From TrEMBL:
CDD domains in UniProt: acetolactate_decarboxylase
EC category: lyase
Catalytic function, reaction form: (2S)-2-acetolactate + H(+) = (R)-acetoin + CO2
Pathway named in the protein's UniProt entry: Polyol metabolism; (R,R)-butane-2,3-diol biosynthesis; (R,R)-butane-2,3-diol from pyruvate: step 2/3
Protein transport recorded as keyword: no
Organism: Sporolactobacillus sp. Y61
Lineage, uppermost ranks: Bacteria, Bacillati, Bacillota, Bacilli, Bacillales
GO function term, MF aspect, one: acetolactate decarboxylase activity
Keyword hit for Metal-binding: no
GO BP: any one term: acetoin biosynthetic process
Name of protein: Alpha-acetolactate decarboxylase
Length: 241
């Protein structure tokens, strides 16, 4: 196995930045038809913060606050997403229950450094998954305000898939530093942004990436936004959990 992807498959494509979501930039910068060339796997959100996005195996879904999951449409726009061509090099099976902290320790053990980008996929049975789903925002309020009314769901003893990324600390504010995971159940009926989980058993795949590629939007709201954050760590703690 090799960790050297070619230029295309080694890339984590990043559309816009986490700081712009914090600043309330929810205007769609690209639609999914335009970004699909950048990956078959990813997480993100939608214009007006209207739901969470999850995609893998080249199938992409919108997860909404009413608990539904629907296949997204090519014309659906997004203000923020992270995509990659998922080509895992590491596989590991887990047959004993692990909570989030225990599982993250396992994840750390399996990779060479915190200073690289990784994509993860976990298929399994989860004793619990606690998710939130951002809700439609008519106005561009700061995301710390927008999440005050976010619905939180608890999935119990559910088969499903968690996917997402590890972003190194030095890229905080471009994406979410640390682990950023989204969940969808096996029936593709519900899910959201992962706040907490207990894995019962499952299979983990890890794809070590070679680089991040940042696309800066040219939308009116991005161009005019004040993206300097006074307390970036705290804002991301509040919005991402
Ligand atoms: Zn998320």
């Amino acid at each position: 196995m090799t960790s050297e992807g070619n230029k295309e498959t080694g890339e984590v494509f990043q559309l816009s930045t986490m700081t712009s979501l914090l600043a309330g930039v929810y205007e769609g910068a690209m639609n999914y038809h335009q970004i699909k060339e950048h990956g078959d796997f990813g997480i993100g959100t939608f214009e007006h913060l209207d739901g969470e996005m999850i995609g893998f195996d080249n199938k992409f879904y919108r997860l909404r606050g009413d608990g539904t999951a629907t296949p997204l449409k090519p014309e659906d726009k997004t203000p923020f997403c992270s995509l990659t061509h998922f080509r895992p090099q590491i596989k590991k099976n887990f047959d004993k229950p692990l909570n989030k902290a225990e599982f993250e320790q396992e994840l750390h053990r399996l990779v060479p450094s915190d200073n690289l980008f990784y994509a993860y996929r976990i298929d399994g049975v989860f004793r619990e998954v606690r998710t939130r789903t951002v809700a439609y925002q008519e106005k561009p309020v700061p995301m710390t305000e927008a999440v005050k009314t976010q619905p939180v769901f608890d999935f119990e003893n559910r088969k499903g898939t968690i996917i997402g990324f590890w972003t190194p600390a030095f890229a905080q504010g471009i994406a979410v530093a640390g682990y950023h995971f989204h969940f969808i159940d096996e029936e593709k009926q519900g899910g959201g942004h992962v706040l907490d989980y207990v894995l019962d058993h499952g299979t983990l795949l890890i794809d070590q990436k070679t680089h991040q590629s940042l696309y800066t939007p040219h939308t009116e709201s991005f161009l005019k936004a004040d993206l300097a954050r006074n307390d970036l760590e705290k804002e991301i703690q509040v919005t991402e959990g």
